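## Example pair
The file below holds two records. Each record gives the amino-acid sequence first, followed by its structure token line.
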Amino acid sequence: MTYHPREGWAGEGQPRRRPVSRRQFLAGGATASLAAFLAACGSSSSSSQATTATTAPFKQLALPRPDNPVTWPLYTDNKAIASGLAPEKKATLKLYNWEAYINPKVLTNFEKKYNCKVELTTFNTMTEAIAKLESGQFNFDVFVPTVDVLGQLVAGQLIQPLNHSYITNIDQNWPKFTNPFYDQAWQYTVPYTIYTTGIAWRKDHISEGPETFANPWSFYWQSKYKGKVAILDDYREGISLGLLKNGITNLSTSDPAQLSLATNSLLELDSLVGLHIDNNDYTAIPNDQVWIHQAWSGDMAAAANYVPKGTPVDVVGYWFPTNNLGPVANDTMTVLKGAQNPVLAHLFINYLQDEATALTNIGFNGYMQPITTITPELLVQQGILPPSLIRTAVVQADFTNGLFEGQLAPATDARWQQDWLRVSSGV
């Protein structure tokens, strides 16, 4: 039996667990979390003075978008560490990360470089992670959150501003990540992994790829593949597919008519093909369980690890639009406010931004990092990526033109969840 690299890494001979989607946590707690975040923003001035260096005071209802970038507030009682400090001696850096989302070799190499120890604690959902951080009972140095919860983390002062002088390797990243729309001037975050959401299919069973369709996103709607079609068990990805099938590219829409159109299309898909809904894209396609599956690029990049012996990886295809108009996303790295080793935390984040380290990491988990010199061609050349799956590699144009599933206002988020329940409850 094979496992995805992120699936419950527990060491040799230990049991593994299937992970939950990085966005799936929203179904259980996003509305409450966002409401708490907005309340915190509205009351933060009573405990500390919020300021920004380059913009007007933070707007309470701001939702980060590419066309609505946000500069998060800075607080007088939550300042960045001073420059020029030496790394903590004989320290244990505590990393709080998704399961199986970093190569253990990276941690070992960092320990040797800085004469320290690294202690990795993992989580399965962002709700779980934030609940532990808010309890105050856990002390970590580095945390790997999604973009969706940055406002909550900043308003709750769970993360601290970064001192950029320690993170010189940021220059190795794509320039846009020194001023991302979700954290202008990268005050609190550096990028970690990047990924797209596209279509995986079995080329040995389906001769025509998505690119042969007038609207490639309609590729799923083929009754002749009944019982062999699956989409991700993720309400944002699922509803977004329904939107794209109807030519709607606003993947954060609050328009009830558009959401109804998307939902009805997914219900039609279910009646047409007997839809599967799961997050097993990384095994279901390579193992020939389904022939068409909505998929994350990082999952399919590792397909060679899961095809049965004797089956060429070339039978697996991955499509993402050549005009880049598809779902894109990234995770981030932050330093927690209560970090006991803040200098080492900065240096660790810096270490992850280096090309050699990033290549070691990508070879383990399949998920790319936005390092300028790491091209699709380089990944193929180094044997990290099969030539046939080169489109799973994310390029800068994907993030320039790609479609972000942005944070939703509470009422809109509730509508998305309700619509997804209509689709998923009977599947």
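Second record, same layout:
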Amino acid sequence: MELDGIFLDFYGTLTSGDRAAVESVCERIVRENGVAISPYELSVTWGERFFHALDFASGESFKTLFEVEVQTLRDTMGELGVRVDAEKYARQLKDYWEHPPMQPEVAEFLKKIRYPICIVSNADRADIDRALERACIRVDHIVTSEEARSYKPDRQIFEMALRQTGWRRDRIIHVGDSLHSDIGGAILAGIRNGWLNRAHRIHDIGTHQPDHEFEDLLGLLRWTQSHPTT
């Protein structure tokens, strides 16, 4: 039995992580508003609130990623007693979503991988389309949280990806860099999974144990070449 295809996270997996972008935004917020915490502390506090909000933003309560960024930043700053133009700062972060640097091994991975790819990403569709176009990357399928109205780890985004691709649940692997969103979500959906552990995240709230662990995309490539039936 071989794989029907590979589900891949996008941000932090094919692209560089958002650490530099988030820290840059938080440094600007602290500098312009005289916040009494460090940019790093703000990035962690905002990030925890952001990921918690995503867990409750699927289905009837769905909000776009940009809307969640704005709301969670506004709430985070409100707790610190500081009012800010949250949309202004979220737009700076949105620039990262549209123009993220690609990981150095992406071109080689996409050239050599023999399985079709479906990107499964917590992202607004326009942002990921611009990012892929800018990087001249083409994949077989794209499923975003905006289309599915579901954020990983909610299983519905994976169910949409299964319907769109027609791939069998027991013949795919989902690979991403978040223990919480990617590994936790794949486990909920009953999908084999692999953690791309680049160790460059600001903070990972996940504690799930992945089926496989890869140091980069070439590690995933080697796994597909040496373990086509496992």
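Notes on the second record: The domain at 19-98 is CATH 1.10.150 (DNA polymerase; domain 1). The chain has a mean pLDDT of 93.
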